Amino acid sequence: MPDARTHDAITVISGVALAPITYLAQARAGVPPEPALTATGLLVIAHLVSGILFSPDLDLDSAIDDRWGIFFWIWRPYMWLVPHRHRLLSHGLVISQLLRLGYFYGVVIALVWLLTWALGKIGILLPYSHVWITETLLTVARNHPRETAAVLIGFCTGGAAHTIADWTVTGGKRYLRRVGIRIEHDYRDHDAWSARRSRRTRAWQR
Fold this sequence. Notes:
Elements: H1 4-28, H2 33-52, H3 63-66, H4 76-81, H5 95-121, H6 129-143, H7 145-178
């Protein structure tokens, strides 16, 4: 499989390619230029964020979770529960991306609720921020359906670009084996992951 830098390049190139395609598709559908440009920008940004920060390779201890710095730990439960390269939960085209987004939302809501509860125990009363966050997101989605759809589609395409690249490499290996050339499956150089490394020195610790 391609390494992290190659996947990043694929994410950026595919994001750039999606920009004119998205804009022209909306123009043909009769969307005015300004909202079409906004939706296009949101889709490309979501595509890049998905591919670079919410990569399918968050299901293993890799260079990807290092990008979260001191917050790398929020992906540990996801990493333990989701099998690497699972076709539905990890390296799918749609469901796996939405699963990671939903997981991140759940973690944020849980942390906000925990903070509110802890402060309440020492006499600092705050409004139910986790409820406010959810209601705000739902209101934005209702009031801006086109922009919301653009973000969700971009988030899915960002992860899908990674998955398709992996499938292409895997398919290439299978083709080579058919003609007598065998390439061993090896994760040792995949996103700088090492099965032997129990404790990893992270960029923020150096």
